[in-house]
Specification:
It contains one helix and eleven strands. The protein is mainly β. The chain has a five-stranded antiparallel sheet with strand order 1-2-9-4-7. A four-stranded antiparallel sheet has the order 3-8-5-6, with no helix packed on it. Strands 10-11 form a two-stranded antiparallel sheet.
C-alpha cells in the first residue's frame, strides 16, 4: 500500500528539483487501471494531449487549471472531476500535485455493448 501524502511530498520535491518543473510516479498498475501522482511547480504544464477511455483527476495539493475545448476548469485541493474524453492540458497555478486515475481499456460484452 502506498502513502499518498508521502508520494505527494516526494513528487513535489522532485518537481522542484527538475529542470522541467514536473515529476510523476505511476504507483498502481493493475490490468487496465493506472494511478499516478503528478507534481508540477507553479507555471509548469502538461501540454495538450488525448484523453484515455476513462479518467479522473483529484487535486492532492495546490491549484491547477484543466484546459479542454469546452473551456477551462480551475481546481483546488480536494476537488475530484472526471476528465472529458477530448484533448486536454493541465497547468499548475501554484506548486501542485494531482492523482490521475486512468482506465486504459474498456470491455465489450458478447452483444457488442461497451462496459466501463
Amino acid at each position: 500500500m502506498d502513502d499518498l501524502t508521502a508520494l505527494t511530498r516526494q513528487q513535489l520535491d522532485d518537481a522542484r528539483a527538475s529542470a522541467h518543473g514536473r515529476s510523476a510516479h505511476l504507483f498502481l498498475h493493475e490490468g487496465p487501471l493506472r494511478q499516478t501522482v503528478i507534481a508540477l511547480i507553479g507555471g509548469a504544464s502538461l501540454d495538450e494531449h488525448n484523453a484515455p477511455p476513462a479518467a479522473s483527476l483529484q487535486v492532492l495539493h495546490g491549484h491547477v487549471r484543466l484546459t479542454t475545448p469546452e473551456g477551462d476548469r480551475d481546481l483546488v485541493t480536494g476537488h475530484v472531476i472526471p476528465i472529458p474524453q477530448e484533448r486536454n492540458g493541465l497547468t499548475a497555478l501554484v506548486d501542485s500535485a494531482v492523482l490521475l486515475t486512468v482506465v486504459t481499456a474498456t470491455a465489450v460484452t458478447a452483444n457488442g455493448t461497451q462496459v466501463g
